[in-house]
Design brief:
Elements lengths: L4 E4 L5 E5 L1 H9 L3 E4 L1 H9 L5 H4 L12 E4 L36
Parallel strand pairs: 1-4
Antiparallel strand pairs: 1-2, 3-4
Length: 106
């Protein structure tokens, strides 16, 4: 239900958490590359680390990516009440708290 794929700006700032469909959208259009979240922490502490160079090219057969690195600066960033969009969301039933046999209702 929630894939919690991290989306980072080119400067390493977490912009939001997205699902697999949105991640595929960014990857197929060449707007982002797959990367490991730890590369962003490393690049903040060591400017010589090039996240875009060290990122993997998207592979259709690979498992779900855990993080994407945008190749261009996003128009907006979460501020104040928008911090909701960068919080990890749990896959849990809101009625009983179960984490199994979940169904999304619109």
């Amino acid at each position: 239900l929630y894939d919690n794929i991290q989306l980072f700006a080119p400067d390493g700032t977490l912009v939001g958490l997205i699902g697999r469909k949105k991640a595929a959208w960014y990857l197929t259009r060449g707007l982002a590359v797959e990367t490991a979240p730890c590369l962003h922490q490393l690049s903040k502490s060591n400017p010589s680390v090039d996240v875009a160079r060290d990122a993997k090219s998207p592979s259709p057969s690979s498992a779900l990516p855990t993080a994407l690195y945008l190749l261009r600066d996003p128009h907006g960033r979460p501020q104040g009440s928008e911090l909701y969009y960068i919080q990890t969301k749990e896959n849990r039933c809101v009625v009983c708290g179960s984490q199994e046999c979940l169904v999304r209702k619109n």
